[in-house]
């Protein structure tokens, strides 16, 4: 199993070249077709009302196309660049969702509040994850991404979203040198002798040629997501896999709160499915 069609979102943000380089590396590893989608809000109110690109957006799109074509040619990959016709906020989100539905994997960038103009809307990542029906890889806005998927951490709670993410991440898991499945338990569940949802999971992964280890830990407050991120970092993971809007540790929390927190703060590449 491999990703044969990879979509990478492009904008004018400071991390776009890092994101494109990572997508090219993934496409090479999977023998994939790479599609670049330029989509960002337009800062010109006049063009938004007229539903057309401003001169500023057209210039940004031209730079994006040149960057994509140069890197694609140098990589030897097959691919195609596409730019949206205008930058109205909802149009950017809606069209990115639609394009993602026709890809095996979509590569997006973590929102950076300090980046200013030229980046995608903050809610883009969550909306694509929830509405595309496809796995989404979100790359952190800070630092470089030298490897993705050599050491994988999987957040597991045996719910639908986690099972979906596990299946969608299988190309990464099968190529990884180390896979760690992490389960977060509440203090109440742990004291009650709750089984940390491990039945059959490692056997299932083994049938796919994935040798994994499993660990669980207990948290006593609502910091389950921070604890999960810390444990992933401690394992040296360069990819965290989790189901979006699933309950990890505390089912009484707002269902999407944990996912939004991880989207904002995850320091390593994050693969999400819903």
Overall outline: globular
| Mean of residue pLDDT values | 88
SSE order in H/E notation?
EHEHHEHEHEEHHEHHEHEHE
Poorly predicted runs are: 249-254
Terminal Cα span: 20 Å
Strand order of the largest sheet: 3-2-1-4-5-10-9-6-7-8
The share of residues in extended strands comes to 15-25%
Family: Belongs to the universal stress protein A family.
Organism: Azospirillum isscasi
Protein name: Universal stress protein
Domain UspA: 3-140, 150-272
Characteristic terms for this protein:
single chain, 274 residues, alpha/beta, Rossmann fold, 2 domains, 10-stranded mixed beta sheet, 11 helices, 10 strands, 40% helix, Universal stress protein
Descriptive account of the structure:
The chain has helices at residues 16-30, 45-50, 55-75, 89-100, 124-131, 160-168, 170-175, 187-191, 201-207, 224-234, 257-265, and strands at 5-10, 33-38, 79-83, 105-109, 136-139, 151-155, 178-186, 212-219, 239-243, 270-273. It has 274 residues and is α/β, with parallel strands linked by helices. It has two domains: 5-139, Rossmann fold; 151-273, 3-Layer(aba) Sandwich (Rossmann fold), CATH 3.40.50.620. A ten-stranded mixed β-sheet has the order 3-2-1-4-5-10-9-6-7-8, sandwiched between helices. α5 (124-131) links the parallel β4 (105-109) and β5 (136-139). α10 (224-234) packs parallel to α11 (257-265). The chain is globular, with a radius of gyration of 19 Å.
């Amino acid at each position: 199993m491999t990703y044969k069609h990879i979509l990478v979102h492009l904008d004018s943000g400071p991390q776009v070249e890092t994101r494109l380089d990572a997508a090219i590396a993934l496409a090479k590893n999977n023998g994939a077709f790479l599609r670049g989608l330029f989509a960002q809000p337009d800062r010109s109110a006049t063009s938004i009302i007229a539903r057309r690109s401003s001169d500023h957006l057209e210039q940004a799109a031209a730079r994006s196309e040149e960057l994509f074509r140069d890197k694609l040619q140098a990589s030897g990959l097959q691919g195609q660049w596409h730019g949206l016709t205008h930058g109205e906020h909802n149009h950017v989100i809606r069209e990115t969702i639609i394009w993602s539905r026709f890809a095996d994997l979509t590569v997006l960038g973590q929102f950076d509040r300090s980046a200013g103009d030229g980046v995608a809307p903050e809610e883009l990542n969550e909306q694509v994850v929830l509405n595309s029906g496809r796995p989404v890889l979100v790359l952190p806005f800070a630092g470089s991404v030298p490897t993705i998927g050599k050491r994988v951490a999987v957040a597991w709670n045996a719910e639908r979203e986690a099972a979906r993410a596990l299946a969608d991440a299988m190309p990464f898991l099968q190529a990884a040198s180390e896979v760690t499945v992490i389960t977060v338990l509440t203090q109440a569940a742990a004291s009650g002798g709750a089984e940390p949802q491990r039945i059959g999971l490692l056997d299932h992964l083994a049938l796919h040629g994935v040798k994994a280890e499993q660990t669980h830990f207990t948290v006593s407050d609502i910091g389950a997501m921070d604890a999960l991120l810390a444990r992933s970092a401690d394992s040296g993971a360069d990819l965290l896999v989790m189901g979006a809007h699933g309950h990890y540790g505390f089912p009484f929390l707002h269902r999407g709160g944990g996912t939004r927190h991880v989207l904002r703060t995850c320091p390593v590449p994050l693969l999400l499915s819903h």
